[in-house]
# Entry
Amino acid sequence: MQNTDLLTPLSSASACSFDLPLDSSHQNDAEKGVLEVSLFRTALSLKNATWFCRLRWGIILILFGSGAIGLISGLSHHVGFKPNTRWLFITSILLCLANLLYIAHLYWIRKKSRIEFAEWNLRIQIAVDLAFLTVVVHFLGSIETFAPFIYLLHIVLACMFFNRNQSLGIMLLGYAMYLGCLVLEWSGIIPSNEGIYTDPNFRAAFGPLQIFTNIATLLVIWTTIWFLASRLSKMIMAQARELSVTNQRLIRTQTEKTKHMLRTTHELKAPFAAIHANAQLLLNGYCGSFSPEALKVIRRISERSHALSCEIQSMLQLANLSTVSKESLKWSKFDVADVIRKSVDSFQALAAERKVRIAEELKTVIVYGVEDHLTMMFSNLISNAINYSHVGGKVSISSSQNGVDCVVRIVDQGIGILPSKLSRIFEEHYRTEEAAAHNKQSSGLGLAIVANVARTHQIPVHVESTPGAGTCFTVRISILNKELNSNHSAVGLNRWKRFFRFVQDS
# Structure
């Protein structure tokens, strides 16, 4: 028996999408371009701020780990370092608290959709980091170590995150903090012997000319790196903005085409339904008798119009599933067994026509989801099982609870699917030659609808099939899916859980 899976990956919680408005006769191209660039920058700032928070956790771990290593007795003296580790622990703890505040602010930005504050969050992060970095540079050794080169990390990141003038401001702020640290040391306001080296004469060996030369060289290197990084970043950002604007225009164009297609398709639905109904009237003799040849033509008209009507219905369902966002859907609690029974009842006539027996073994399992969507999913799976069964065959449908999952199995004794074609069955309009020969009325959209619903609900669908013997679809629905969101009495707990999930993702 061959099998395949339709696996639905979980969606990322720190990620964000911003749709641009459709074309308006009152907006010119210049205004739309400014709006697109503005939305592009704010969305990018939110992603950059989230990424920067993740990076900071690694830096905090390095600082804390360095302090822990410094506590090992005698290790520092063997490598020529002072065993002073208190500042490492204090700095890592304060930096951790600051990072939690940044993350809380980003959570508020996303919850309130105030993305215009994302860039300010990023600016504050870099400014505060420069202050912490200045403390680190002082304790490592502001002159006798390579610690001042760590400022280059923030200078390069500023070139990536901001425009050229803003990154220049970040670099000048780094200048001011580093030179301010040196002035405080030279004036005696803060001790100048806090470096990590144990040799007290190490720093004294630097004369005024050497110190001036080192500082001047350092600032020249900073400026050169800023110039190159900002120029390269400007070029990349310009290309990225152009691609983003072009992509949004393509999306708008595709949206208009989809709307036009849906309008046209919807307008065709009623005429085909009317043709089918009138053809049925003719076949039932309401308009008199017809010759056998005429009845064959009328029957073909009826079958074809009914098939096209069903295909139009499937196209409309698939288009609606593809265009509606998850946030706008109506999620609720319901019993999976009730949904399956309704679907089975709607296909009893089809099963009787094809002489297919339906065996049910349904147990009550409460899940959380969009009932209409799951009805569409099970209706398509059940109709496929009936349509592709052999005459006199059997379709077995069962639902049960297995741990935190509701497991639904739909098994037929039909034509089956060849192993080489099993991986493509969820593609739109795809039909195997065997399926097309067995059921000429199918549109090839049923399993595409199943796949779309599965992705929206994050439901794995497992398929096993033996050619000539039948196919088994196994659907696993998590009974914990959005469980907390449905509990209005746990709003406060829900908020804390979402916050800690956001911290974990960050």
Remarks:
- Strands lie at 2-6, 332-335, 357-362, 366-369, 394-402, 405-412, 461-466, 470-478.
- Residues 193 and 204 are 10 Å apart (CA to CA).
